[in-house]
Amino acid sequence: YDLHQRTTYIAETKQALGEIKAYYSGDDVKRKLADDMRKDIMKQPTSNLGATSSDAMENTHFIQGQQAQQRMIMEQQDEDLEELGYAVDRVNDMAVGINTELKTQNRMLKDLESDLDEATEKMNFVMGKLAKLLKTKDTCQIWTVIILFFIVLLLIFLLIYT
């Protein structure tokens, strides 16, 4: 019972964390952050930038806005590249797993092939001996084979139904 409560709590916590992460990585939050950054840059005093006229101040504000926008674009690109890197790592892990599995299956196929070759050789040997036996005119040998065949069938029948 205690273990069930803990696993339920962990599952609920993971779900809540996922929802929070999805919210904070959403477009609304990113837009809000970008707007706040733009407002902060616009609030910076322009007197230290050397602008003396209103046109120069307007140009300075425009340049600052463009710089802020470029920084945001670069941050977004960094985030996208980081996600792409994680995706590439996952694909690499899957490729390594597939490669390992293929090597294992290839080894198993080679083992199966050698086992089949060995069984084929034994079967050819038995078939040769059987052909030699059936070519004989000795009825005693033929009756011995027939009786042994029926004994094997009887043993198999008893083995299955007991």
From TrEMBL:
Residues 102-129 form a coiled coil. SMART domains: t_SNARE. GO terms for cellular component: cytoplasm; endomembrane system; membrane. Keywords: Coiled coil, Membrane, Transmembrane, Transmembrane helix, Transport. It is a single-pass membrane protein. It holds the Pfam family SNARE. The chain crosses the membrane at residues 142-161. It is found in: Membrane. SUPFAM superfamilies: SNARE fusion complex. The keyword Phosphoprotein does not apply. The keyword Transmembrane helix applies. Residues 71-133 form the T-SNARE coiled-coil homology domain. This is t-SNARE coiled-coil homology domain-containing protein.
